[in-house]
Amino acid sequence: MDSIVSIKQLSKVYDNGFKALNNVSLDIKRGEILALLGPNGAGKTTLISAVTGIISSSTGSITVNGFDNVTHFRQARSQIGLVPQELTLGAFDTVWNTVSFSRGLFGAKRNPAYLKQLLIDLSLWDKKDNQLRMLSGGMKRRVLIAKALSHEPDIVFLDEPTAGVDVELRKDMWQLVNRLRESGVTIILTTHYIEEAEEIADRIGIISDGELLLIEDKKELMHKLGKKKLHIELREPTLEIPASLGAFDIELEDQGSTLIYTYDTSAEATGITNLLQQISSAGLHLKDIQTTQSSLEDIFVDLVSDDQYRKAAQ
Q1: Claim to verify: residue 33 and residue 109 sit in the same structural domain
Q2: What is the dihedral of CA 46, 47, 53, 58, to 10 degrees?
Q3: Average pLDDT score over residue span 124-131
Q4: What gap in Å lies between CA 84 and CA 98, rounded to an integer?
Q5: Which H helix or E strand runs over 195?
Q6: Is the pLDDT of residue 231 over 80?
Q7: What Rg value do the Cα atoms of the chain yield, rounded?
Q8: In degrees to the nearest 10, what's the CA dihedral of 240, 252, 244, 293?
Q9: Full domain range(s) for residue 251
Q10: 86-116 pLDDT per residue, tens
Q11: What is the pLDDT of residues 156-210, one digit of tens each?
C-alpha cells in the first residue's frame, strides 16, 4: 500500500522557544484509518495543522499525494478535508449555503445530489434551511463534518471529532467513517476515546511532548506490547505472597484472595506451569483461574508514562 501523505523530519518551534513538534517522520498509507493518540498538548493538533497548511513548520517537509504542501499548496490542500476541534462557524448563513460554499472554495463542480446525500447521512437534511445560530452544538459539529467532506477529498483529518458530543452523533460519525474508508478515503483521527481507536483504526500512532513514540499496526502493537494477566482465585485468602513465588511478577489483591500474575505472551515460555506448581507447593489451593488481555489504553498509558519518566530523568 503506497503512501498518500509523507511527513519527513518535521519540527515546529514557536517564537517563545516552545517546541511543539520534534523531528516527526510519518508515512500515511492510502486508504487506511490512522488514529493518533496522545495527552493534551502532545502535538496532535499541531501536526494536523502543519499538514493542512494552517501553520508553517520550522523544519522538515510534507507531501500530499505527491504535492509539496508549501510549493504546491493549492493542489495539496484541495485533497484534504479537515474537521477541527473548535466549532468555527458563522451565525446567519444556512446549513445548505455553508456546505455549498465550502465545496465551491475548493473549485469542485456543483453536485447537489452529493451534498443532499451527505446531509442525509449526517442527519442534517431536515435542517438544511436553518441558520447556523439556530443549531445545537451537536448539529454544528455535524455541519463541520459536512463542510470537510463537501469537496469529496481523498484524505480526511478528524481532530477530536466526537469530543463532547452525544452518543447518536458518535454512532453516525463512525458509520460515516466506515463508508468513507470503503470508498477509498484515507482517514486520520485524533481521539481521547481510546476504545474508538481500538475498534476502528488500522494503525496507531502515539505522540507525547511533540515526539512520535511509535507508529504500529494495531494488531501487531497489541501483540508486541500487550500483556496478559492470570487471575488466580484462592480458596482461602493469604496474608502475603509466599517467598517461593518471589521470582514471579505477582501481586496480591482482593484482600489476599486473588493472585495476579502478569506475563508476556510473546515470550518463549509464560512460566504459568511452573507458577501453578509453586503455588501448590506453598500450600495454597486454587478456586478459579482466568486471564485478561491488556487493552490499547493500558499500552498507551504505559508508553506515555515511560516517555515522561525518561525525559524527567534526563
Answers
A1: yes
A2: 80
A3: 92
A4: 16
A5: helix 194-200
A6: yes
A7: 24
A8: 180
A9: 227-293
A10: 777 777 889 999 999 999 988 889 999 999 9
A11: 998 887 666 667 777 777 787 888 888 889 999 887 677 777 778 899 888 888 9
Q: Does the predicted TM-score (pTM) go above 0.90?
A: no
Strands (E) in 105-241, as ranges, are 155-159, 186-190, 203-208, 211-217, 227-234
C-alpha cell at 113: 445530489
> Are 162 and 232 part of one and the same domain?
no
Let me know: does 218 contact 200? Beta carbons within 8 Å. Answer: no
Residues 218 and 277 in one domain: no
Q: Is residue 306 part of a domain?
A: no
- Asked if 263 contacts 272 with a C-beta cutoff of 8 angstroms, the reply is yes
Q: Which three cell numbers stand for residue 163?
A: 469530543
CATH number at residue 251: 3.30.70.100
> What is the DSSP secondary-structure string of 211-257?
EEEEEEEHHHHHHHH-EEEEEEEESS--SS--GGGTTS-EEEETTTT
Measured CA to CA, the distance from residue 137 to residue 140 in angstroms comes to 5
